[in-house]
Amino acid sequence: MKVLIIEDEIPAQRYLKNIIKExxxxxxxxxxxxxxxxxxxxxxxxxxxxxxxxxxxxLTDGISFEILEQVNVKIPIIFVTxxxxxxxxxxxxxxxxYLLKPTFVDAVKVAxxxxxxxxxxxxxxxxxxxxxxxxKTSDKAYRKRLWAxxxxxxxxxxxxxxxxxxxxxxxxxxxxxxxxxxxxDITMDKLEDELSxxxxxxxxxxxxxxxxxxxxxxxxxxxxxVLRLKIDPSIEIVIPKxxxxxxxxxxxx
Length: 253
Prior knowledge:
Low-confidence stretches: none
Oligomer: single chain
InterPro entries: CheY-like_superfamily, LytR-like, LytTR_DNA-bd_dom, Sig_transdc_resp-reg_receiver
Protein name: Response regulator transcription factor
Keywords: Phosphoprotein
GO molecular function, one term: phosphorelay response regulator activity
Radius of gyration: 21 Å
CATH class of the largest domain: Alpha Beta
Strand content: 25-35%
Domain Response regulatory: 2-116
């Protein structure tokens, strides 16, 4: 039995693979894919195909249903999503199997059992078209959870509990409202797109901050301001002068 995981977050790839291996130690894994482009190329050119696909909905370059729109994939798929309201109604109406991130052993086991009972069938073209249309026209749902990379573990973190994200040495980090630190395998640009703009603000290239973590701001120099965080007022985050007004309006909106 060959399995293909299509997932753009490396920790999530590894975590899901380990869960599947725990349930089905004899199953084989093809090299994972991370984007719509890679998916289209794989199903167009590769000869060795998987027997089952675990596919994240939101990939780096688009929605995974765009792969199915471009190529005819006659392989059962279990979709994975971090967004509780991300077109799940369309999934339920069309009896499409899906897992909510973070995935846990019991949920994956049930999904695999459905696959083995042949309850998870390849999607028909009209179903793909309907769900893709629903996803594209739905109000955008924002990320609620993510993986925090720590020295000896991967921890699930609720994004509302994160004070800020910051970039350091070309690596994304988070600082929680409890003053805990961890690495995150997501770029700052992708986080900016996936986080709720009501809750998070991209202060500068280095920082994205949670409104609940803001203590206040102080004049700096050259029309710039400095933001201080409640959890550690010693941290000074410079607000560029072209973002000062936008930031002030964001706080009180």
